[in-house]
Design a protein that fits this description.
single chain; 309 residues; alpha/beta; 3 domains; five-stranded mixed β-sheet; two-stranded antiparallel sheet; 7 strands; elongated
């Protein structure tokens, strides 16, 4: 199944082909860091009835060579679980890339899951004469360190994003990790910053989402409002579900009130007992919706400033 995390990792390698070279070099692959990379078609189809698409294909060339002749075609695959069917398709991708670009081919498998990464590292029999074993280059959480330095993150935004996406399911990530991710995103052009903010948010655990949003807002309050609306929507839906689960006729209104208090707490906005009573007593669904949306982006430090604004 294609997920935001899956697509985010593919986008990252396509946006910054040099990241793959650096990671391959660290593992001892025969590559040069000064190669220029370009994204090519990932269509590996050989016949009309059979359509094969790799996740991404990046062709690297040496800028010092005449006409930039390709040095290697890198097939990038994101693998989120064990799937033996890949043992059939991966060799086809490599052969297809070899035929299309007439150069050496390599396979890089990116695994956000540690167990899957270890499974992919093992060489397997291709069943092809004189090509008995295929051992992909594998990039997993243990191959990329956690980045906690915002200054370094801003200097190497794509490496930091790769680290964040590969470690997204870790449960022990501290606030400094999200501060570094926010700094990396802030260093990108606006369109990319918007896209990667959404990718990291959607790939984060529920517990980490609020921490990431706080880190984003700490570096720049101007991030697109739709990101923060998604953040508020998460709590609103949760509140509605809780209200309905209790079988209350007023479940929707009470759910909205609870979600508003949750957003305020997550953002560190001061809520007095009087503010809490006022919010819980409100029966205007439209007004509660406005307050929830505003709470996600407001500069106010107190609930009173938001409610009376």
């Amino acid at each position: 199944m294609v997920t935001t995390e899956h697509e985010g990792l593919i986008d990252l390698f396509c946006d910054a082909p040099g990241v793959a070279l650096k990671e391959l070099a660290l593992q001892g692959a025969a590559v040069q860091l000064d190669w220029a990379g370009r994204v090519e078609s990932a269509n590996m189809s050989q016949t009309v009835p059979q359509v094969l698409f790799a996740d991404a294909v990046i062709v690297y060339s040496d800028p010092q060579r005449v006409a930039g002749a390709p040095e290697v075609a890198l097939v990038v695959e994101v693998q989120r679980g064990k799937d033996r069917r890949k043992f059939m398709s991966w060799p086809q991708y490599l052969v297809g890339a070899r035929k299309a670009h007439n150069c050496r081919t390599m396979l890089l498998v990116v695994c956000p899951d540690r167990a899957t990464a270890e499974w992919c590292r093992k060489p397997y029999d291709t069943g092809i004469q004189d090509w008995h074993a295929l051992k992909p280059w594998v990039l997993g959480p243990d191959d990329v360190p956690v980045q906690e330095d915002p200054v370094e993150a801003a200097r190497k935004p794509f490496e930091t994003l790769l680290s964040g996406l590969l470690h997204g399911s870790d449960t022990d990530l501290g606030k400094q990790v999200f501060a570094a991710l926010a700094a990396a995103i802030r260093a990108l052009p606006d369109e990319q910053a918007d896209r990667y903010a959404r990718i990291v948010y959607n790939a984060s655990t529920d517990a980490a989402k609020s921490t990431f949003m706080e880190a984003l807002m700490a570096v720049d309050q101007r991030f697109p409002a739709t990101i923060f609306e998604a953040y508020a929507e998460q709590f609103r839906d949760r509140g509605l579900a809780e209200g309905k689960a209790e079988g209350k006729a007023e479940g929707r209104v009470e759910g909205q009130a609870v979600s508003l208090l949750t957003v305020l707490a997550a953002r560190g906005i001061e809520v007095t007992d009087a503010d809490r009573e006022r919010i819980m007593a409100c029966t205007d669904q439209e007004l509660l919706d406005i307050w929830i949306q505003t709470a996600a982006v407001t500069d106010a430090t107190t609930a009173a400033g938001l409610l009376d604004g």
